[in-house]
């Protein structure tokens, strides 16, 4: 397997999940790791963002030592040893960024209320090294130089915003077909929430699903081609079979 393919597969796995096990250095029990489950999303280039309370134990640990890891795996699979998982090692830092806030709250709308009850803040975990296990015999270390993807995030922000706006305004039928074909959901309300190099999030009524692309898309035209292909495939799969007499 080529390096670009297993990086793509690893990132697809990460984008498909919405939570992972954050391991921090315990400040109260020195020398021991402390694990907790946290929600996250991955930025376009490949860093993780989580929204956590300042009073949480893991946040206190981060303030004492910012070196952390996040373990991500498919929670719906039965055999955790045979299925893919990612261990993301990096440095956590407090971040204030309007686009990060907007994207996170789009994917986790319930988080809007957290600020009212606790002092929540965004932390970005900047990639240092990634361990990807794609199943038995598929074990790889990925350096950050290979993991981080694409152009400057500010450029992709503009590209993704245009894609999202276009799909939401002009292609509701296409999204409905794709969601029904790939996820078995017949939704009445559809909203594209994100567009990344590897795929896109779509809200289908109350459920958020992740649509993976078949290959890395570094520009709007490549994303368009993937969405058009998915739409054509959905029409073919959902059309009644034609019986020749």
UniProtKB/TrEMBL annotation:
Coiled coil: none annotated. Residues 10-148 form the CREG-like beta-barrel domain. Residues 160-229 form the DUF2470 domain. InterPro entries: CREG_beta-barrel, DUF2470, Haem_oxidase_HugZ-like_sf, Split_barrel_FMN-bd. PANTHER family: CELLULAR REPRESSOR OF E1A-STIMULATED GENES, ISOFORM A, CREG1 PROTEIN. This is DUF2470 domain-containing protein. It comes from Paraglaciecola agarilytica NO2. The lineage of its organism: Bacteria, Pseudomonadati, Pseudomonadota, Gammaproteobacteria, Alteromonadales.
């Amino acid at each position: 397997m080529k390096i670009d393919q297993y990086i793509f597969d690893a990132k697809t796995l990460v984008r498909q999940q919405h939570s992972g096990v954050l391991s921090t250095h315990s400040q109260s029990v020195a020398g021991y790791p402390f694990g907790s489950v946290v929600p996250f999303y991955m930025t376009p280039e490949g860093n993780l963002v989580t929204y956590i309370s300042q009073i949480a134990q893991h946040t206190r640990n981060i303030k004492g030592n910012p070196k952390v890891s996040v373990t991500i795996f498919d929670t719906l699979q039965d055999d955790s040893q045979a299925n893919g998982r990612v261990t993301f090692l990096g440095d956590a830092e407090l971040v204030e960024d309007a686009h990060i806030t907007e994207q996170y709250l789009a994917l986790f709308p319930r988080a809007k209320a957290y600020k009212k009850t606790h002092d929540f803040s965004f932390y970005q975990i900047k990639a240092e090294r990634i361990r990807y296990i794609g199943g038995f015999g598929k074990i790889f270390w990925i350096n950050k130089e290979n993991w981080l993807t694409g152009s400057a995030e500010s450029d992709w922000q503009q590209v993704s915003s245009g894609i999202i706006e276009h799909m939401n305004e002009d292609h509701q039928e296409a999204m409905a077909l794709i969601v029904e074909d790939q996820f078995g959901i017949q939704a009445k309300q559809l909203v594209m929430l994100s567009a990344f190099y590897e795929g896109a999030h779509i809200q289908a009524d109350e459920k958020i699903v992740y649509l993976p692309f078949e290959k890395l898309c570094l520009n709007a035209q490549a994303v368009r081609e993937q969405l058009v292909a998915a739409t054509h495939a959905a029409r073919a799969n959902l059309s009644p079979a034609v019986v020749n007499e």
